[in-house]
Amino acid sequence: MTNPSSAAPMIEASALTKRFEDFLAVDGIDFSVAQGESFGFLGPNGAGKSSTMRMVGAVSPVSGGLLRVLGKDPALEGPAIRSRLGVVPQLDNLDLELTVWENLYVYGRYFGIPRRLLRPKIDELLDFAQLAERAKDKVEPLSGGMKRRLTIARSLINDPEILLLDEPTTGLDPQARHILWDRLYRLKHQGVTLVLTTHYMDEAEQLCDRLVVMDHGRIVAEGSPRQLIAEHATREVAELRFPIGENEARAEAIGDLADRIEVLADRLLLYVDDGEAALRAVQDRGLRPVSGLVRRASLEDVFLRLTGRSLVD
Question: Which of 2, 93, 102, 254 is deepest in the core (most CB within 10 A)?
Answer without folding.
Answer: 254
